[in-house]
Design brief:
The protein is of the alpha/beta class. The protein folds into 2 domains: 30-150 and 285-356, Response regulator (Rossmann fold), CATH 3.40.50; 153-279 and 362-389, Rossmann fold. The chain contains 14 helices and 15 strands. Helix 3 (84-97) packs parallel to helix 4 (109-122). The longest helix is centred in the N-terminal third of the chain and has 27 residues, at 2-28. The termini are far apart.
Length: 406
């Protein structure tokens, strides 16, 4: 009896696998290329990513006529709720049951790291835009991922050097206690020390914190001259506004290590003014960025953030690689993406590196004073360009285990 039951179980497993394989094969032949945008639609990153990233993906598809390599492009999207387990469930279902060929965005580093584990296992391409942890191209890298827009190393490196060069030291960090904030603090601390500055300490706050009073009091008592904000979204906005309530700027320079465009009008220039930070994109920087931004604004009633622009740029490059190879096979498309320079409104002569890092120029910016701004989205003053090979971590220092094996 036991042998019969075991035999039946094996038969059912084989039948299930055969059905799944046949289903996947059928989807592969249905003439559709499916793009899955997984993002924060309802949490603190929704304004800077969310539906704007879906719109940006739709624009990328429309720019090539809605088809590539004989396949109609279909955009699907989902809210990961800033929960890694929710994101993993969505992405597995997309790949196993919905025929999704490529995943994009993934804002929230803890979420992105979890998604990357799935796409690595399933051999699907993951185009990362909103997530920042440099671990995504470090020890947890993937041969099928491209980290497109920015990372914690690039965001902190130029800013830390500029602040230290202007006499800004020693530092104290106010850090979001999850993968992104921890990586940002780590990478910025290294940059401060390398520039000749000093770090006195740090305090970590929970994700989505409303009351920063105790953390700010610790910062004030540290005797540091620089308060570095290693957080983002509403955490960043709340920290800046409450720092002004405590008159932190009377004794410390507040430095933003990650700023999202939509944070600034939400916070107000009265609070945000004169913060130095590094970004990968600003809508009003060149004629090309303005043209993209104006089309985006028509659809979304807001100027695009760097993350939303990065989704568009990454998918443009992916679609070109699919067209050139007439394939959606991840390994084939990734080879083409690596050997083709990125030249569009977002990057000039960008390079997709072997560890998955898309290397491009970054820009040191200052947030304008209220009297300097000519409108709601006139927010940044360009300071200087940081060449990509200086902005991003050197390939040899990341510890990606796939280097030399692709």
């Amino acid at each position: 009896m036991l042998k019969v039951m075991v035999s039946l179980a094996r038969t059912l497993l084989l039948l299930g696998a055969a059905i799944l394989f046949a289903s996947s094969a059928a989807r592969a032949q249905d003439g559709v290329l499916r793009v899955g945008i997984i993002t924060d639609m309802s949490g603190q990153y929704a304004d800077g990513n969310g539906t704007g990233s879906v719109i940006s993906a739709q624009m990328a598809a429309e720019e090539i006529g809605g088809m590539v390599a004989g396949r109609k492009i279909e955009i699907v999207s989902a809210d990961h709720q800033n929960k890694p387990d929710v994101a993993v469930g969505i992405v597995r279902n997309w790949i196993d049951n919905k025929g999704v060929d490529v995943i994009a965005e993934g804002v929230n580093s803890a979420v992105a790291l979890a998604i990357q584990n799935v796409t690595r296992e399933k051999k699907k391409i993951f185009l990362i835009s909103g997530s920042g942890s440099s671990d995504l191209t470090g020890k947890q890298c993937s041969p099928t991922s491209v980290h497109w827009t920015y990372d914690t190393y690039a965001s902190s490196n130029a800013t830390a050097k500029a602040v230290v060069a202007r006499g800004g030291t020693p530092w104290f960090f106010l850090t979001a206690d999850y993968a992104f904030g921890q990586a940002l603090e780590r990478d910025a601390s290294k940059a401060v020390n390398a520039a000749g500055g000093k770090v006195l300490g740090a305090v970590r706050h929970p994700f989505d914190t409303a009351d920063f009073s105790s953390f700010l009091l610790q910062a004030q008592s540290s005797t540091a001259k620089v308060l570095a904000l290693a957080n983002a979204g509403s955490d960043f906005r709340n920290a800046v506004a409450q720092a002004d309530e405590f008159n932190i700027r009377g004794s410390m320079q507040v430095v933003a290590l990650q700023v999202t465009l939509t944070d600034v009008p939400a916070l107000g220039l009265a609070h945000a003014h004169d913060l130095l930070f590094t970004d990968s994109f600003y809508w009003d920087r060149t004629p090309e960025t303005r043209a993209f931004a104006q089309e985006f604004f028509k659809r979304h009633d807001a100027m695009p953030t760097a993350y939303q622009a990065g989704v568009n740029s990454a998918l443009r490059h992916y679609f070109k690689a699919v067209a050139a190879t007439n394939s959606v096979d991840a390994e084939t498309v990734m080879r083409q993406m690596r050997k083709t320079p990125v030249n569009d409104f977002f990057a000039e002569n960008g390079v997709v590196r072997e560890d998955g890092r898309m290397v491009h120029d970054m820009y040191l910016m200052r947030i304008k004073k209220p009297e300097e701004s000519k409108g709601k989205w006139d927010l940044y003053e360009y300071q200087t360009t940081v060449p990509g090979d200086q902005a991003f971590r050197p390939l040899a220092e990341g510890g990606c285990p796939y280097i030399g094996k692709q």
